[in-house]
């Protein structure tokens, strides 16, 4: 598998995801600077990492979405290139039109960093094949703008077409308000595009993909990608 | 420029008359406004340490593993394998009281720059916060703003905020304390210092543009507050963490080359202090062409340019001919880069603007021969001994009250607003004894903590100073790491008052004693004086930041027992000391008596024993005993694991004293019964007091008839107070 991580000014999870993905791949993925006008040839996967691209100025993700490299990301994604967009990456992906909906300020109006439980809603994808359908996993969030919102028609379409990837849930898998850390519509933590080749999610799988850090549930996502795209 | 010492200007910009006369003597003439401004900030308490220098010299600062002690931007210690930990703690008290969000945010930004200036990638942030009475009308606003500011800056730059402390006391009503600490990681052969060198080498300015913000911030931070302090808001700087993140990456990229001769961040007193310090340390002169400084606004005067405290700026001396290479890196990161001067052999700082000389001062007398005072001081009277007070109510009621009190309740509301997981190396998160961050790419880890118990320091500065150092040492030990060195942030009132200087001298003496006994030197620090408002000084607060090393993070332990059936072992002697305890204050409503004495030999013996037990793999959990004593520590272990416990108190003491006494040098361990037997045997052999006090299990914490509480009830008490307070649902009566 050939993979690349995009680096924007203000990205701060680029190294973390490089390490976590590299552990599953057996070698480090490429790092691509935002000003490059084209992605490297023959890529199987692009990661848009977390952080504060452009300091979240204007609106989280809004400026990065117009970076030179994003034009090529969007075009290649339309032709089937797999894209994993984490946290600020998810915000950039919605701003770039790769995924529907928006990420609003958390209902608490505060940044929140903590482990959350997620229910795997789709295990038949390149991102989630190593998880069981309905499995509850634990990985951290760290964001101030992760409150997913979209219009009722789009939500219905996402539900009907199986585009909801993960929902915030209790440790036993119930998706109630108590388990929702940011006010997201329908407890949505992550969504796919229609072809399930683009995944955007607020939680950080790269932050708990190492047992020494107290959890390894993120690892399966990277293993799934390596298995599906190699 | 013809005025004499007899005709002093009306505004001496914070200098005393004697200091002004000294400035005239050094100059051989009256300084002009730009020059006077420079004298004012360079000789401010904040930049010159003029009241504290005499005492700071008493602190031990060396050990075989110390690479660089106090005097540079931050302290440097060797952590093996060609790697160094670089760290420092610094105050941002006055700005944070005036404008809590920006004050705290720029405090974080400043301490980060102190660390990456030396070539280190910052890997952990901590903060020690002191607020006024929760019932004070400003407390909630200040706490919300400070926490948001620390998070807003640290989260954006992508450095995890992994620990710290937050307590409340009315002595901070008019003067909160915001102390920020950064720990960074560097290669020992890539450490950068600030001494300018090489006549003719270019002086380069990088980072943000210079604006009119923060002019005379250092002078403001060196004066007392009064009811008009809020008018000083324009002296508070505004931070831009996005630019800081770019500056970190650009500087580290440049530092991987050999372009840099010297580098210094522009902190307090901006371009003035950075250029003076670089020239002074290098024994050279510097010439600056001020019109070349990147400016945010038009029409800035030389005075404003030199004294601006605009954030996210650095000054560097480059090797000749390397400007283009360096410029390319900064342009890639979209940061300003300007050659603004050169190193000279004149020993003078010469400032010009469009060819006209606007200032010309001798460097050495100004930067090094700053005033140094031996201020009068009176020792703090020793508090009267405290006869054993009677208990009030049941043990379990007192425990619930303590767990829910502002100084002991869960700080989750705070640290969940800090990204403590970014960089994916956080092994032990906030909420335990020390936090533990892995050294990236290895199995090594740095244990980090900040501690101080101001009520102890107030009652007995010497014991309090020793206790603050010992508590960091104990917290680092409690996770299995070896404590290596500390940074200190000394927050006190007006040094011109002998009783305040007495507190300072006492705390230093206690710290010195503890550092020597524990082989635990001071490698960096900061002094913040004049922390008082309308004559009311804060409690003496020497915040200590400790750093320790563990060779394998897989061996580290947190405070959470693993399984029911484990045995609980109390290490250390329990004497039932209730003087200055939280039980005394929160349950009995008294703040008197002496603080617990610190027996440094016992600290060392017990701590070395506990660390060896952790590294042997016998323990599942370890917790240091501090505020609230044994029963609070036990309750915290129950809360961390969700498991109950059944225990008995050490014999021979009134139950409330055994449960809540704050005797030092103690730990509570949890181990499976077989390993626990080995621990008890080893303790006997080592002469360490150890007592099996109970067993982990069930849903309740039980200590005999007057104490049975479900873990759920403990959690409700512990978790409830801070969120409710911050939502305005409850005020402390």
Please give a structural write-up:
The complex is a heterodimer of chains A (230) and B (733). By secondary structure, chain A is of the alpha/beta class. Helix content of chain A is 22%, strand content 24%. Chain A has one domain (3-229): 3-Layer(aba) Sandwich (Rossmann fold), CATH 3.40.50. In chain A, β3, α2 and β4 form a beta-alpha-beta unit. In chain A, α1 (14-25) crosses α5 (219-229). The longest helix of chain A is centred in the first third of the chain and has 12 residues, at 14-25. Chain B is of the alpha+beta class and 733 residues long. Chain B has 24 helices and 28 strands. In chain B, α7 packs parallel to α9 (241-255) and α17 (461-477) packs parallel to α20 (600-615). The longest helix of chain B has 21 residues, at 498-518. The N and C termini of chain B lie far apart (61 Å). Chains A and B meet through α1 and β6 of A and α7 and α9 of B.
Can you tag this structure with a few keywords?
heterodimer; A: 230 residues; alpha/beta; Rossmann fold; nine-stranded mixed sheet; two-stranded antiparallel ribbon; 5 helices; 11 strands; 24% strand; B: 733 residues; alpha+beta; seven-stranded mixed sheet; 24 helices; 28 strands; globular; disordered N terminus
Question: In terms of topology, how is this protein built?
Answer:
The complex is a heterodimer of chains A (230) and B (733).
Chain A: E1 3-7, H1 14-25, E2 30-33, E3 45-48, H2 68-78, E4 82-86, H3 88-95, E5 102-104, E6 112-120, E7 136-143, E8 147-149, H4 152-160, E9 164-169, E10 188-192, E11 198-201, H5 219-229
Parallel strand pairs in A: 1-2, 1-3, 3-4, 4-11
Antiparallel strand pairs in A: 5-8, 6-7, 6-9, 9-10, 10-11
Helix pairs in contact in A: 1-5
Chain B: H1 17-27, H2 33-42, H3 45-48, H4 53-56, E1 66-68, E2 75-78, E3 83-91, H5 93-98, H6 100-116, E4 121-131, H7 139-157, E5 161-168, E6 177-187, E7 202-207, H8 217-220, H9 241-255, E8 260-265, H10 270-282, E9 285-289, H11 302-307, E10 313-318, H12 323-332, E11 336-344, E12 348-353, E13 356-362, H13 363-367, H14 395-403, H15 412-415, E14 426-428, E15 435-438, E16 445-451, H16 454-459, H17 461-477, E17 482-491, H18 498-518, E18 522-528, E19 532-533, E20 536-537, E21 541-550, E22 567-571, H19 582-587, H20 600-615, E23 621-624, H21 629-641, E24 645-647, H22 655-660, E25 667-671, H23 673-686, E26 690-696, E27 700-702, E28 708-710, H24 711-726
Parallel strand pairs in B: 4-5, 9-12, 17-18, 24-27
Antiparallel strand pairs in B: 1-2, 2-3, 3-6, 4-6, 7-10, 7-11, 8-10, 9-11, 12-13, 14-15, 15-16, 16-21, 17-21, 19-20, 22-25, 22-26, 23-25, 24-26, 27-28
Helix pairs in contact in B: 6-7, 6-9, 7-9, 9-12, 17-18, 17-20, 18-20
